[in-house]
Amino acid sequence: MKLVYLKSSFFLLLMIVACGPKKRPVYNEGINITPVPSQVINGQGTFELKSSTKLFASSQELSGVINGLKSQLRASTGYDLPISAQFEKSNSINISINPSISDNYEAYELTVNNNHIAIVGASKEGAFYGVQSLLQLFPAEIASKEVINNIDWLVPSVEIKDEPRFKWRGMHLDVCRHYVPVENIKKHLDVMAMYKMNKFHWHLTEDQGWRIEIKKYPLLTEVGSKRIEADGTEYGGIYTQEQIKEIVAYASERMIDVVPEIELPGHGLGALTAYPYLSCTRGPFKVRNYWGVEPDVFCAGKESAFIFLEDVIDEVVELFPSPYFHIGGDECPKIRWEKCPHCQKRIKDEGLKDEHELQSYFIKRIEKILLAHGKKMIGWDEILEGGLAESAVVMSWRGEEGGIEAATHGHDVVMTPGDWCYLDHYQGDSNVEPVAIGGYTTLEDTYGYEPVPEELDHKMVHHILGTQGNVWTEYMYTPEIVEYRVYPRIIALAEVNWSTKENRDFESFVKRMDNQFVRLDMNAINYHIPLPEGPCNHVVFTDSVKLEFTSTRPIKIVYTTDNSEPTLASEEYTEPLSFKENTTLKITSVLVSGKMGTVRTINIEKQALKPALDVKTTTNNALKQQRVDGTFVRVAQLENVTNWEEGVSDLSSKPAYEDESVKTTEAKILTGYIEIPEDGVYEFNTNLDQFYIDGELLINNDGLVKRFSRNNSTIALAKGKHAVKLIYMENNLGGWPQAWNGLEVNYRLYGTENFEKIAKEMYSF
Ligand code: ACM
Ligand code: ZN
User: Fold this and answer.
1) Does 397 sit in the ligand 1 pocket, CB within 6 Å?
2) pLDDT band at 4 (very low <50, low <70, confident <90, very high)
3) Which ligand is nearest to the CA of 379?
4) Does the C-beta of 195 come closer than 6 Å to ligand 1?
5) Residue 284 Cα, ligand 2 centroid: separation in angstroms?
6) Is 587 helix (H, G, I), strand (E, B) or coil?
7) What b-and-e string marks burial along 257-269, b requiring 16 or more CB atoms within 10 Å of the CB?
8) How far is the CA of 269 from the centre of ligand 2 (A)?
9) What CA–CA distance (Å, rounded) separates 580 from 544?
């Protein structure tokens, strides 16, 4: 799917700003501070920033804060504002610290009147957040990285008192499934700071790759960080210790604490491939090139595994000043431990009941190491199983139960339940969005998350530290797709974390986001814009068809029917569209800033019913099968195959998830007939490589990730038999093995609610 490219829309925006009289764009109207502050009192008049405006910071501690403000103002306004040595009464921005303004060290007060701006933070952090709010009172173009000349840099008079509701305002990022370059991580940190987020949870080790340089164990870089993809290409990436220090320092300037995650005892195949002695079986292993959970884990019986982890921790704690250290702890299969003599001996020697208690033993040993370094251990909610380590902080991801249980027993908790906080989920219809892991969590769903569960005893509520968005990157193949999934949902969570419950209002948030999107444009962030949803991209009709579009939140939609690209002047979609002729419909969404989303192209085609074939078939509930051994990635490779084995397929698929090593070693072509139950237009859906009907290539997933096919298509068919051809290649593209899909094809009468699987009884040859 083509993603929106930001450069062109950025220039469009500059043109809107640069041409014509100085009219305030709609997105700059009102106060758009996000997350919404605790208290805002509007005043009279405005402050105007001039090239002569002076900046003053009351203490050396604020030098980073004032310099950050100065450099942002210089970038967009071109003013090189003087920094004054003393408090200035007029034409000035003064920043100071006064711990007595609040018990909450992150609080600030911001006062703007006609000739003076004052920011008072309860601490350096508070002052920094005051600066972020001040920047958000300026026109959105203040966030520009380039000078914009003809804007009045006005700030409305206002008195703000503000502080965060929660301490932990986080974003997690998995850089193992897909590597995120340092520059892209810095972009996230920039945006996190704009929205007053303060925890970057960096998921650094996985089955699919180890990503942090450990000097004592060089094979982690040389071997553990690299995987061979199913198409034979090498994928890898590592952060050197110098790069890590650079990121930690960059985050610290933005008041963001970087929390490292080193996964144990599971999700460790990167390390096990480099050093197989760490496992129960001694391998050999390969860094995993498909998603899911690896059964090989760190051995809980061998001392050498603990020595390795202690050495790793010794190096990692030196790099991260954070008081927290995340040890993973999730999804650790026990099947190796059950058979391992070392692990079984450990269970016996330590008087443990089972492998769950062995996991708990493992985590408690790691806790001791971390405590000796003065670190607080944090882990996913599985660390509750078999007995929770005394000092552990729990990150609740499999719902809220783990978090409730931990908080009830006096443990601190970060709430990240999947239904609201997993930003790898779809945020719109899977038929039109780029392939994702699954789930469905719209911006409104995320915004609606309440981190304090009703069931929790009010005396334990202080143990809820806050929430964070989790960004697992299996289906985020590029840094741009990471941004697409993260924004704007993470900003919804920023507001959940910062703002009072009473002040939260989705309609107000969405309106403020019109302004924030312009700021994201200035940061070249590839954020999600809701797409027009509903019809698939090839709509067939016999007489006429009416197409209705929806979107995940109210947004302007425009379209053309003359094959031209939609523009801001195109017809606005206000009601379902009717078609009687062949048409190419191009349709897209438009933000208040004028930025457009991805354009969908929908081919609308009039067809007569394809007549049924007058054929006699002799084999029922099956298709004719040609099968060949070999690894095939693209359908064209099948053209050279001469050694097909002929046979019969009953369409049954192997149970694939049981397979520990997914095979990618065969291809099949199935041919025969399908019995269509009644005349009509049918919509088909499949993750097969290709699906043909009556000789027409109806669905083509060649070269794509074979998951949640985006290529549904329709065809008009008369009741009776129609020829079909199914092409299945047992490949693994983008980490999803075709073997996990099997031979399934689904269909429905066009316009009806649910798809049904084509039953084998409908096939014959
Ligand atoms: C997780 O999503 N496995 C923590
Ligand atoms: Zn073992």
Assistant:
1) yes
2) very low
3) 1
4) no
5) 15
6) strand
7) bbbbbbbbbbbbb
8) 14
9) 5
Dist. CA 215–CA 314, nearest whole Å: 11
Residue 708 CB less than 6 A away from ligand 1 = no
- Class of the 7-162 domain? alpha beta
Query: Does 538-606 carry CATH code 3.30.2000?
Result: no
Atom of ligand 1 nearest to the CA of 418: 2
Q: How confident is the model at residue 22 (pLDDT cuts 50, 70, 90)?
A: low
Q: Which residues lie closer than 8 Å to 723 by C-beta, 6 or more apart?
A: 613, 671, 672, 673, 692, 693, 694, 695
The candidate with the shortest Cα–Cα distance to 300, out of 328, 274, 325, 333, is 333
Residue 24's pLDDT is what?
A: 84
What does the pLDDT read at residue 659? 53
DSSP-derived secondary structure letter, 83: B
Q: CB of 315 closer than 6 A to ligand 1?
A: no
Pocket lining: 380 vs ligand 1, CB cutoff 6 Å: yes
Alpha carbon distance 67, 65 (integer Å): 6
476 token code pair = 């985020």
Nearest alpha-carbon partner for 733 in 429, 477, 483: 477
- What is the whole-number distance in angstroms between the Cα of residue 385 and the centre of ligand 2? 19
330 lines ligand 1 (CB under 6 A): yes
Residue 230 has pLDDT above 60, yes or no: yes
Distant-in-sequence, close-in-space partners of 187: CB < 8 Å, separation ≥ 6: 483, 523, 524, 525
291's CB contacts (< 8 A; 6+ apart) are: 177, 208, 437, 474, 735, 736
Write the CA distances from 532 to 528, 553, 600, integer angstroms: 13, 10, 8
What ligand is nearest to the CA atom of residue 471?
Answer: 1
| Contact 331 CB / ligand 1 (< 6 Å) | yes
Residue 311 CA to ligand 2 centre (angstroms) = 19
Would the CATH topology of 538-606 be identical to that of 623-764?
no
- Show Cβ contacts of residue 450 under 8 Å, excluding neighbours closer than 6 positions: 496, 501
Compute the distance between CA of residue 729 and CA of residue 636 in angstroms, rounded to an integer. 11
pLDDT for 418-468, tens place per residue?
999 999 999 999 999 999 999 999 999 999 999 999 999 999 999 999 999
CA distance 42 to 713: 54
Q: What is the residue whose two structure tokens read 């490292």?
A: 260
**What average pLDDT does the segment 350-370 reach?**
97
- The whole-angstrom separation of Cα 429 and Cα 424 is 14
CATH level 3 topology of 168-522: TIM Barrel (3.20.20)
Burial class (CB in 10 A: 0-12, 13-18, 19+), 760: middle
Give the residue extent of every domain in the chain.
7-162, 168-522, 538-606, 623-764
- Please list the residues that pair with 471 across neighbouring strands: 173
Q: Is the peptide bond before 488 cis (omega within 30 degrees of 0)?
A: yes
Q: Which CATH entry fits the domain spanning 623-764: 3.60.15.10, 3.40.980.10, 3.90.182.10, 1.10.510.10? A: 3.90.182.10
Q: Answer for the pair 489, 108: CB distance below 8 angstroms, yes or no.
A: no
